[in-house]
Amino acid sequence: MTTLKLDLGQRSYPIHIGTGLLDQPELFAPHVAGRQAVIVTNTTVEPLYAARLVRTLEALGKQVRTVVLPDGEAYKNWQTLNQIFDSMLSSQADRKTTLVALGGGVVGDMTGFAAACYMRGVPFVQVPTTLLAQVDSSVGGKTGINHPLGKNMIGAFWQPNAVIADVSTLASLPARELAAGMAEVIKHGAIADAEFFAWVEAHIDALNGGDVDALAHAVRRSCEIKASVVARDEREGGLRAILNFGHTFGHAIEAGLGYGAWLHGEAVGCGMVMATDLSCRMGLTPADLTERMAALVAAARLPVKGPALGEDRYIELMHVDKKAEGGEIRFVLLDRLGSAVVTVAPDEALRATLHANV
Amino acid sequence: MTTLKLDLGQRSYPIHIGTGLLDQPELFAPHVAGRQAVIVTNTTVEPLYAARLVRTLEALGKQVRTVVLPDGEAYKNWQTLNQIFDSMLSSQADRKTTLVALGGGVVGDMTGFAAACYMRGVPFVQVPTTLLAQVDSSVGGKTGINHPLGKNMIGAFWQPNAVIADVSTLASLPARELAAGMAEVIKHGAIADAEFFAWVEAHIDALNGGDVDALAHAVRRSCEIKASVVARDEREGGLRAILNFGHTFGHAIEAGLGYGAWLHGEAVGCGMVMATDLSCRMGLTPADLTERMAALVAAARLPVKGPALGEDRYIELMHVDKKAEGGEIRFVLLDRLGSAVVTVAPDEALRATLHANV
Fold this sequence. Notes:
cytoplasm (chains A, B), lyase (chains A, B), alpha/beta, Rossmann fold
């Protein structure tokens, strides 16, 4: 097991990465202070891992309840969130009750938001069981739900008390979801560590094949990079934006096709190829980097060409996505492998990128 | 105008108290950073003050939208909160959009919670128009909504960027609501400042009569006391509990009669008489303090006797209320006028207090 630390002063927390962690009460003990713990999971993960986690928490003398949410992004809404509140209130959960998120990104985001809001804030622990959640969404404290008018529009920054990433759980993950998580692994190399990017290139077959040691290393280095960025910019005032590399194009793909058609990681994989292509066209990086990025994204079994939405529609969708920032589309680009910059892009370069990659 | 400061490091903010403040753009200017402002108010306050506030914000060049909620505690729920989100999302409000709460405690709590959650947090300004909101709920960052299974169960600590308390707006307040706010004024004297308590005793007729200078002083001193407590314990880890003086009995009254039968301040007024009586019975303070408290509460036109719910029912309700704290009922009592302590109470003293004051 490796333990990293996300350094946020009083809100600092450990990230434990290893195998068989679900069964180790001592990892949970320092983070489950009250008498009660509530495991929040979904219908897919519950039959696989909930009983083990219940046993681990009961070994600590906790009263444990389990709330099983329906599985899928479509249920990441207020009604489902309220299932958590209903269960907590009807069992008289108090301010010291700890929520434990057992599942992927949707479960983690919703559990974290429930923890942020229940009695104005209770502790929670992330136990991510997908690669995407282990390398990205469980770390950094972004929580929330969707609104009919926008994804992740209602939420909070609420840091977990610990992240416990048991890489053994990745064995049960469908290949398509493993690939989707790999997009964020590649992203971390691209924006922050060229050597790690090269390591992923060299080990992509082992990673695709579910090699536990390779996956543990990928999770560890990804969490280190993400933790270091979040520690410097918890609330996304500036630097944290670089974690959105590939996401501006990716969100356009997701929104253009309708959310759920492509997995988030699939859209990000393709989006990273586009963003690298744009970086090259703008003269920020040598032209061969696009090929290298496309080769790795393809090797990770992710799409490298965007769906044919039409260039105008892409640009319109990116404008909607970025309205939150005040009008102009700001792209996360690479000025070399392992280093990201946030900048605007000339319209003709953007159109050339879309033309070449759709 | 007087300006106080609530000192919370980076989250510090000014509390402006005076007359005619609604019409002073320069007070709002430093706190409304983005292009858009959204005023949230209710059907009662909107016709009285919204147009003036719109004019003030438009004078700063802001695009201003107004969201009008139904009036009353019964609407302090997710559905009403969603009216705010719907309006913001459909007008593409961005992360710099400032919410402005124009109204009493319910409007302030809901607007603050919407600000805490919209895109994981946007700025907001409190413009309280009731005495209760000016002396208590607008200061300190407690925000939230009710759940069918409990009051204020879903919420956040989210500090406003400023509180702008225009005491001229109290002229439109019904006498019953003015009295309800006075309960919190009396509370601040009781727990923190014997001299201020005596000043309220001496000026209660002027306060009841709506004397603007007297009200401004009462608001100012109340905000000073509350700000000083909150600055030392923002998230209610300990000290902040003293602000709940009278509230344990008060909540039992509100819950026992059904929320809304008595106003919160009426229940707190009566609750403070009970809590003082209990303090005396436990030998913490001289016996004449109960009489003095009852006389002031009565002079403020608030009830001094609790409804006949039965002693057992009171105790049961107080246990439910305090389950959040882990089992035992912890009372905020006075060890002298102007000084509060948090402690448990012997059952027979508690029953004697209920017997004498119901």
